[in-house]
Amino acid sequence: MQAMVFAAGLGTRLKPLTDTMPKAMVSVGGRPLLWRVLMGLRDAGVGRVVVNVHHFSGQITRYLADNDNFGMDIRISDETDRLLDTGGGLKKAAPLFCGDAPILIHNVDIMSNVQLASFYASAAGPDATLLVSERQTKRYLLFSADMRLVGWTNIETGEVRSPYPGLDPRSCRMYAFSGIHVFSPRLFPLMQPFPDKFGIIDFYLRACAQADIRGCLMPRLRLLDVGKLDTLAAAEEFVAGAGGGAGAAPVG
């Protein structure tokens, strides 16, 4: 297994904490968010991990070096000069992955009870598999009856984005994206026309008419986006409820 952790974001919603540190180093339960994601990946059996860095990048690289990469094969994709967003970050990191094994991608600020090894195994086959939830939001991914990605909508504004003209969101299954997904290197050639900086969801929405991009809805999913100051208390409770470990109990 190989993985990528998106850790390059500015963390603006976590200010003033991120005025002096990257979001990845914000502490929850006495451990940085990055540690929690890495331990979940290590427990899942991931061999190589690519971590992209930008904001206070030196703090992340020193932390990993000081801890001998926690015994993992960790490669750094350096975006110090320019933040490339999630899609551009993945495209830049492409040479750091090994072979054609699918890549498990995890946002650094997401905590969940997902059993990552099971999710990775279940994602074998499609070109990409996006873990989704029934979380209430304004922005939803749209899927066909067989959970193939067909578009995106903002239910507040009525905006629809899809490669399928005239797509009616009411005819689709609507789910929120979790920030955890599995990406096949088979998709890298489709990224070549994209600019250096772009979002991964923008890519998926353009590629879904050509590639097999699926959604995966897991039962009893607990998911927490630790992206804002007012979620830190909930994150502490989340960790306490999991016994203080890297994550929570497995889904299943």
UniProtKB/TrEMBL annotation:
Keyword Nucleotidyltransferase annotated: yes
UniProt superkingdom: Bacteria
Any Pfam family hit: NTP_transferase
Molecular function GO terms recorded: nucleotidyltransferase activity
This protein's UniProt keywords: Nucleotidyltransferase, Transferase
UniProt-listed SUPFAM superfamilies: Nucleotide-diphospho-sugar transferases (SSF53448)
Matching InterPro entries: GlmU-like, NTP_transferase_dom, Nucleotide-diphossugar_trans
Domain Nucleotidyl transferase as annotated: residue spans: 3-145
PANTHER family per UniProt: N-ACETYLMURAMATE ALPHA-1-PHOSPHATE URIDYLYLTRANSFERASE, NUCLEOTIDYL TRANSFERASE
Listed name of the protein: NTP transferase domain-containing protein
